[in-house]
Each structure stands twice: as C-alpha cells, then as structure tokens.
Design goal:
The complex is a heterodimer of chains A (about 270) and B (about 290). Chain A is mainly alpha-helical. Chain A is built from twelve helices and no strands. Chain B is an all-alpha fold. Helix content of chain B is about 75%, strand content about 0%. Chain B has a two-stranded antiparallel sheet. The chains are: A mainly alpha (about 270), B mainly alpha (about 290). Chains A and B meet through helix 1, helix 3, helix 4, helix 5 and helix 6 of A and helix 1, helix 2, helix 4, helix 5 and helix 6 of B. Chain A: Keywords: Cell membrane, Membrane, Transmembrane, Transmembrane helix, Transport. Chain A: It holds the Pfam family BPD_transp_1.
C-alpha cells in the first residue's frame, strides 16, 4: 500500500509509543529495586544497592525460590514425558478421538486458572485425603504438569509434522529395530524441540500463581505466592522490588534460548 | 539383548500396541485425572451446602443457578466482568494495530524478526511482576501521578480503570502477534491492484487490508477476552475494592464450594460462547 510520508511518520511514532508502553513498566521495576525509599514514589530519591544484598539474605525469598525450582523441575519432567507421548501418537498415528485428544491437551491452559485450580483442589481433597496424603509440593507438581503438557506437546508435534516418518522407515529398512531407530534417528530429530519445550514449560510453571494457590499445601510457598503475600507489606517492599527486578532480567533467558533452539515454535508455545 | 530385540520386533509388527503404549499414561493423566476433576466440579455446581454445618449436601438441585441469575450482586459482577473483558479486547485491538502495522510493513525487513522478539519477550516476564509494575506506576506519588502532574491531573489510582489498563498491558502482545503475522502475509499485488484501480491509502485500508486482517484480530481477541475474564489476581492487586467473577468464585470456595462451582461455570460458558462466535469468523483456524 503506497503510504504517504506523513502516514509512515505517524505509524513510526505510534509504534515507538507502543514499545515504550510495553517496556517502561519493566524498566521501572528495575530502577525501583535500586530506590532507597520504601514507597514507590517517582522519581526515586537516590540509588542504592542496599536492598539487593538484603534480598540476597532474605530467607523467605530464597526458600520460595528453591520451592519454585523444585516444582518447576518436577512438572517439566512429567510434562516432557506426557507431552512427547501425546505428540508422537497425534503426529504419527490415526485413531478415533485424535482431534478430541489435541483439544483436551490444550484445555488446562485454555480454561481460566481458577477453574482448573478448584477442580484439582477438590479432586485432591476427595481422593488423596482418605489416603492420608495432604496438599503439598507433590500436588503443586501434579497441577503444574497438567498445564505444562501442552507446551511440550506443541513443540514436539510441530517438529514431528515437519519431519516425515520416512526417516524411521529408512532406518528400519537398513535393519534398525524400533528402539534403535528411536535412539539413532527419531530422538536426535526432536531433541532441540524437547529442550525448547522443557525450558518453556519450566518458565510457565515458575510463573504460575492461580493453580498453585489451590494445590499448594500449608507451608509450601512458591516464588509467585511469596511475592503475592509480601507485595502489600511495606516492611518487605524493598525485597519484593529486588525479586521482581531479578525476574524481569531472567525473562530474557527462555525467549533467547527458545529462539535459538527452535524458532518455529517459540511463538506458538506460550499459548 | 535377545529379549530387547524380540520386544522391538513385537512392537514393530503391532502398530496398535505401540499406540496403546503411547497413549495409556497421557490418557490416565489428562482424561481421567483432569477431565474427571472438571466433571466432578461441574456436577457439584448442582449440589448445595448446608447453611448450618457448611457440609456439602449431594442432592441434585438447580438452586445455585437460580440464585446466580436472581441475585442482583451476582448479575452485576458478571456483567462487569464481561464488560472489562470486552473493554480490554477493544483497547488491545486499537493499540495493537499501529504497532503491528509498523513491525510488519513499515520497518525495514531486516529488522522485523528482532521486533517480533521485542513483542514476545514481555510475555515471558513474570505475570505477577508485570501487575506489580502497574501497582508501582499507579500508586500514590508514582509514575502516573508524576507524569500527569504538569497537566494538573493525577493518576487513576486503584480501581476499575486501573484493572482494565493493567489487563490491557498484560495481554497486548497476544493481539499484536496475530495482526503482525496477517499483515506480513498480505500479498503486495493486492495492494498494488487496489492502488491501480484508483484507491487511496485510506480506501485500500478499509476495503482490502481490514477485511483480510479481521480474522487475526478475532484470533487475538480469543486470548485477550478469555484471559481477562478468568483473571482475579490483577483485580486484587490494582482493582481496589472492585470485584470480578473470579473474586466471587474465590470468596465462595471455603464456605460454599457448590456455589463457587456454579459461579465458575459462568466464565467457562461465556468463553465457549465467545469461541463459537469467533469460529464463524474463521479466526480459530488461523490460531
């Protein structure tokens, strides 16, 4: 479309404003973590790294971080197994209910978190409570794995659709049995998709708060739960600021690695 | 080793067995555990709670839904939630269009991939941190107040406008990305043809670009709408005393789980209806 010069300038300005709106809040979090003041008043009266060292020694934040890492690793491990299994079934076989299965995989992330959260919560309390198992880190892992499956599934299924099954057939023709063909041919083909999917699944689990609220037992506090708990406490505000700033900085990692590993799926898999 | 070879052979000859082995674990997890819990939740919406003991009474009744439709507070909150979701969607579409137009058609082609990454990156920043950022911006004496002070105004503070603003910020990338993709795939010769036929930029935009991009706007709106409708954390952080459906569900869980379940069906039903409406525009196939 032949755009006039003024239209191009207007679009350029609008886009610049748009990107500013997207990034200013994130930059504000970074600057605010250096503010000596406990309130969020702008501009900050000065800059200090005092709160960064205070946050480093905050046992609550450290413990929550460790809980989040364990929950994320557990959920990612389960999601990798389940997501890969479903992806192979959907991409390489035809069977009754295949479309329904792809739909069910997406459902946990498509429904509002609170619906998934209370559904799992009441299921856990009716099924696990009689067995003497209460809510704890285990139930958080189960909840997170449920909605992380779709991330791995999306990544692996996209890879499998782009690589035809003829590689495996060729391996079989050359005398490789089913396991051999998987180890030598199929696995190397999907390895980077698995890495990307696993990483993104971990990031999603690490960030989740709603399902976590309903599946975490007493005493189990992931990092988002800790932030939410301490956000309104003036005493803790500086440490929350630093934790928030760290999370902003860390958010570059999954996108960078995922882009490098499998450019085709990084966009689709957040959803 | 022989056993391994024999197993491999048996698996190779029986594709159905292979499929069964692939599907058993995921089906147990997703279909039994997850769909099972969902089903029980929706069935429990038809149970009631004994008002003296707070025990759940497992007798079929539609009391909860009756209460839902007749209590003015519930109706008000449902309408407000849908209104917020629609407002967020409209704002996202308005803001996303110029940005996507720039990244897809005005910016140098060599810069476009980087710009897409720039749109994507905030999606991976923590949800809670982004809401917290807006709490900082909108708090008293915060950035919003500071920016508006020269104009003699002050920021909106915490409340319904703050909620809409924050949700718009959270879901904006979900709207920019599909519009960007659609604009990028727009064939140049269509635009040339339109210009050859004498249309100016404005006419080409209305008659060629907009109809071809609309399905992508609809696709983006599926995210902005359903993510806003289910949210109850943002409104707790920046919404002041504002209540949305999610807050009502949350408030009822402890004392009246059947009522909470009935309330939780509302966003699900609305989202399904929205999806069905959007499917008619062909939006879902472009997801």
């Amino acid at each position: 479309m032949p755009l006039s010069r003024s239209a191009r300038v207007a679009l350029r300005v609008a886009a610049a404003v748009g990107f500013a709106v997207i990034y200013v809040p994130l930059l504000l979090v970074l600057v605010n973590s250096l503010s000596p003041d406990r309130s969020a008043s702008w501009p900050p009266p000065g800059l200090t790294t005092r709160w960064w060292s205070a946050a480093w020694h905050s046992s609550g934040a450290r413990e929550a971080l460790w809980t989040s890492v364990r929950a994320g690793l557990g959920a990612t491990a389960i999601a990798l197994v389940l997501g890969t299994l479903v992806a192979f079934a959907v991409a390489r076989y035809r069977f009754f209910g295949r479309d329904a299965l792809s739909f069910v995989v997406v459902l946990p992330i498509a429904l509002p978190g609170i619906v998934t959260g209370i559904a799992l919560n009441s299921a856990f309390s009716t099924v696990l409570a009689p067995l003497g198992v209460g809510l704890g880190l285990f139930t958080v892992v189960v909840g997170h794995a449920t909605f992380c499956v779709v991330i791995v599934f999306n990544n692996v299924v996209a890879r499998l659709r782009r690589t035809s099954g003829s590689y495996e057939e060729a391996a079989a023709d050359l005398g490789a049995d089913t396991f051999r063909a998987f180890v030598d041919v199929t696995f190397p083909l999907v390895r980077s998709a698995l890495l990307a999917g696993g990483l993104l699944a971990f990031a999603l689990s690490f960030d989740e708060i709603v399902v976590t609220t309903f599946t975490a037992g007493p005493g189990v506090q992931t990092l988002p739960l800790w932030i939410f708990d301490n956000m309104t406490r003036p005493q803790q505000a500086p440490v929350v600021n630093v934790v928030a700033a760290v999370l902003v900085l860390l958010s570059v990692v999954p996108i960078y690695v995922a882009q490098r590993l499998s450019a085709d799926t990084a966009t689709a898999s957040r959803v | 080793m022989a056993l391994l070879t024999r197993t491999a052979g048996a698996l190779h000859r029986r594709p159905r067995l292979r499929l069964a082995l692939l599907l058993t674990a995921p089906l147990l997890w997703l279909a039994v555990l997850y769909l099972g819990s969902l089903a029980v939740l929706f069935v429990s919406a038809f149970w009631t709670t004994d008002s003296f003991t707070s025990e759940v009474v497992k007798v079929w009744s539609t009391d909860n839904f009756h209460e839902l439709f007749t209590t003015p507070v519930f109706r008000q909150v449902v309408l407000r939630s849908v209104g917020v979701a629609l407002a967020v969607t409209a704002l996202c579409a308005l803001l996303a269009f110029p940005v996507a137009f720039y990244t897809a058609r005005v910016a140098k082609p060599s810069r476009r991939p980087l710009l897409v990454v720039a749109i994507l990156t905030p999606l991976w920043a923590s949800y809670l941190v982004k809401v917290y950022a807006w709490r900082l911006i909108l708090s008293e004496g915060g950035l919003a107040d500071w920016l508006l002070k020269p104009l003699g105004l002050s920021g909106p503070g915490f409340g319904l406008p703050a909620t809409v603003l924050t949700l718009t910020y959270l879901w904006l990338p979900y709207m920019i990305l599909p519009i960007h993709t659609a604009l990028e795939q727009l064939p140049d010769n269509l635009l040339d043809a339109s210009a050859d036929l004498g249309a100016r930029a404005g006419r080409t935009f209305r008659s060629v670009v907009l109809p071809m991009v609309l399905p992508s706007v609809a696709a983006g709106s599926v995210f902005t709408f359903s993510l806003s409708l289910g949210d109850y954390i943002t409104v707790q952080i920046v919404g002041g005393k504002t209540q949305l459906i999610g807050n009502l569900v949350y408030a009822n869980i402890e004392l009246n789980l059947p009522m909470a379940a009935a309330l939780a069906t509302v966003p699900v039903v609305v989202i399904v209806l929205y999806l069905l409406a959007m499917r008619r525009t062909g939006a879902l196939s472009s997801l």
